Amino acid sequence: MTDVSRIRNFSIIAHIDHGKSTLADRMLEQTGALSARDMRAQVLDSMDLERERGITIKAQAVRLRYQAPDGEYLLNLIDTPGHVDFSYEVSRSLAACEGAILLVDASQGVEAQTLANALLALEHGLEVIPVLNKVDLPAADPDRVAEEVAGVLGEDPERVLRVSAKTGEGVGALLEAIVERLPAPSGDATAPPRALVFDSYYDTYRGVVCSVRMFEGRISTGDRLRLMVTGETPDADEVGVLTPRVVPVAELGPGEVGYLITGIKEIDRIRVGDTVTRDDLRAAGPLPGYREPKPMVYSGLFPTEGDDFERLREALEKLRLNDAALVFEPETSRALGFGFRCGFLGLLHMEIVRERLEREYDLDLVATAPSVAYRAVLSDGGEVEVHSPQDLPDPGGRTAVLEPYVRAMILTPSDYVGTVMELLQQHRGEMGSMQYLSPERVELVYRVPLAEIVFGFFDQLKSRTRGYASLDYEPDGYRESDLVRLDVLLNGTPVDAFSAVIHTDRAYTYGRRLAERLRELIPRQMFDVPIQAAVGSRVIARETVKAKRKDVLAKCYGGDVTRKRKLLERQKEGKRRMKMVGQVEVPQEAFISVLRVDED
After folding, report:
1. Which of 321, 354, 369 is the last residue of a domain?
2. 244 upstream amide cis, omega within 30 of 0
3. Which of 1, 41, 315, 569 fits 361 for a cystine, CB–CB 3.0-4.6 Å?
């Protein structure tokens, strides 16, 4: 068993695209974890989606052997995502560590997510090593950025390390600093075992595979275990470590990070955040788990083939094992049939989940327009949470609608302050504070309705500041707003998939744009199709998809005009009957385009 003083557990945290996965590659290379033949870019980003988009979605753990002058050390590295939608993954990883490397791009400086992740690490009581990356770039300004980082952490700028993850420069010094500066884990090997499950995934052949961090005691292959939250008592079929290859070991001791296979096949019997102990040598109480992640955005997912409903349920259950922030419940729609109302942490999270369902589980899905979770105060004083526009009570049955607000923190170069403030005011933002971090960089704090920043806001912020501004946000309670439900009627029939809850001031322009967009997308039928946007019983916008026309008079040469009139009357009567039974065909692009109406 490894001496605890020779173990270091740490994660790499940073803003999106500051080089975490590339730095992890260099560490794997310099510690000889992988041979040159097996080495490839972003080794720990194993999902196809991660490699295509160039982002980390799942936290990954790997064990490295580092040869220091005074002997060998075991370094357990956890690579984490940088995007604001996946900050929940970051907090889970930090709970399994004693230290963190805060990585900052030497050309871009401190970003909003850098600050958020640094505060998260300090909240968990971790030792933080500040590191500047990309010092080899011509645009790098390491001295200025070192001052900024030192200011955030209250450190001496001299102690900020400088590396280039691309060339490998400075990575050796960073590995030395990890051994010297980070504390070793503590834990009594003879105490009743306690291990924290910080991640899990489903393997078709072996069932649920858990990533665990041992805090006390030991767990060996063959032990009878107990999960302290769910009360399950499975056997430990296999314990092991990732180097990044899967390597089974006889036992895991205090401070070690590894995996555990129990043979459990039912997904809901193991939860991320649970504590594993031995059934015959139980720990007194579970380890502090995680805050339950609170979904910010809700959307309906419906299979295009009704028979795929059960397959979609199974796929969502397997995905939830790997992604504890995903929540879902069954729902029905008149337009789309049976499906699920799913909760996500943000739009990127929603997009990733949908793509994973389509790729990994071979499903063809339609997603409804995303909405945030509102609260309606009923006339009798009760309160209901509204996840879908259809659930919003009628104005007669409610006294108020509350919408979620967030505290948005935006870092921008001082040249763009006016532009950013104007954008936030357009999105109903209220200014909280403004602070100059340096003469060139400003931090703005605003209170903004979540619904305003969920769709397209990030893209607008980036385009107006030439990509230099960065955004981070956290929930900031609910507040009463003047909101209405906007419905879309096709041929007089409401299509619930197009409904949206929207602020009264924006209802007309949104309804107008949506009707125009649908007119372009809905194919012409054999009869006129009116598209109406309505608030309650009041129609606020209308467009018409004109009918296809067949020339019934083509063969009617000359003769009495009554012959022509008779043919036209018959055509008119036929169209009237079709209109009574006619279903309007709505292509899938129409559902997708609703998501983009807000971005125009």
Report:
1. 369
2. yes
3. 315
Backbone angles phi, psi at 405, to 5 degrees: -110, 155
Paired residues of 413 in beta bridges: 441
| Residues whose CB falls within 8 Å of the CB of residue 197, separated by 6 or more in sequence, listed in order | 210, 211, 212, 260, 270, 271, 272, 273, 274, 275, 276
The reply to whether 168 and 205 lie within a common domain is: no
Cα gap 324→346, rounded to integer Å: 14
Q: Which helix (H) or strand (E) holds 129?
A: strand 127-133
Rounded to a whole number of angstroms, the distance between the first and last alpha carbons of the chain is 60
CA 161 to chain CA centroid, Å, is 31
- E strand or H helix at 198, and its extent? strand 194-203
Does residue 409 sit in the same domain as residue 347? Answer: no
Query: Which among 168, 155, 283, 300 is positioned nearest to 228, based on CA atoms?
Result: 283
C-alpha 119: how far from chain center: 20
pLDDT value of residue 42: 45
- Residue 440: the pLDDT is 76
DSSP alpha helix (H) spans, 95-215: 112-123, 142-153, 171-181
> Which of 250, 249, 248, 211 has its CA nearest to residue 76?
211
Amino acid identity, residue 320?
R
pLDDT tens sequence across 355-365: 888 888 888 88
Domain range holding 442? 375-481
The CA distance from 300 to 322, in Å, is 20
Q: Which two tokens stand for residue 349?
A: 């999270």
542 occurs within a structural domain: yes
Per-residue DSSP letter, 496: G
**Quick one: 150 and 12 in the same domain?**
yes
> Side chain identity at 90, as an amino acid letter?
V
Q: Is 460 helix (H, G, I), strand (E, B) or coil?
A: helix
Residue at a domain's end among 154, 181, 208: 181
pLDDT tens readout for residues 527-564: 777 888 888 778 888 888 777 766 666 667 666 777 77
Is residue 97 within 8 A of residue 8, CB to CB? The reply is no
* DSSP result, 34-52: S-TTT--TTTT--SHHHHH
Q: What is the dihedral of CA 52, 58, 59, 63, to 10 degrees?
A: -70
Within 10 angstroms of residue 271's Cβ, the number of other Cβ atoms is: 17
Give domain status of residue 284, yes or no.
Answer: no
Same domain, yes or no, for 17 and 94?
A: yes
Do 88 and 176 share a structural domain? yes
d(CA 90, CA 331): 31
Element of type H or E holding 239 = strand 238-242
Q: How far is residue 199's CA from residue 93's CA, in Å, rounded to a whole number?
A: 8
Q: How many residues does the chain have?
A: 600
**Are residue 222 and residue 238 in the same domain, yes or no?**
yes
| Same domain, residue pair 203 and 167 | no
Domain of 550, CATH number, reads: 3.30.70.2570
114 occurs within a structural domain:
yes
- CA proximity to 109, closest of 438, 416, 433, 419: 438
Assess whether 560 and 507 both reside in one domain: yes
Three-state SS string over 388-420 comes to CHHHCCCHHHEEEEEEEEEEEEEEEEHHHHHHH
Q: What is the pLDDT of residue 581?
A: 45
Look at 37 and 525; give whichever has higher pLDDT. Answer: 525
